[in-house]
Design a protein that fits this description.
The protein has about 80 residues and is of the alpha+beta class. It has one domain: Ribosomal Protein L24e, Chain: T (Roll), CATH 2.30.170.40. About 25% of the residues lie in helices and about 35% in strands. The strands form 2 sheets. It has a two-stranded antiparallel sheet with strand order 1-2. It is elongated.
């Protein structure tokens, strides 16, 4: 699987390693992703999602059902 958050669409960014001599080489900043199971009481089922930690904070704030609904409206979930 790719390193993309399933709720927010966050993915790796590209930047530079900068040495003391100011030499620049390309590097990746990966998204902080975790694989987590969520229980959706409306559907009475468990769902496993790969989410970023910032999305996890959003889920704790607004709830998993609202977060999934928002992700579907933005086109991140099917």
């Amino acid at each position: 699987m790719s390193r993309v958050c399933e709720l927010t669409g966050k993915k790796a960014m590209v930047g530079n390693n900068v040495s003391h001599a100011m030499n620049k080489t390309k590097r990746k900043f990966n998204a902080n992703l975790i694989k987590k199971r969520f229980y959706i009481p409306e559907q009475n089922e468990w769902v496993t999602l790969k989410v970023s930690t910032s999305a996890l904070k959003t889920i704790n704030k607004i709830g998993i059902a609202a977060a999934i609904k928002e992700a579907k409206s933005k086109g991140f979930l099917k």
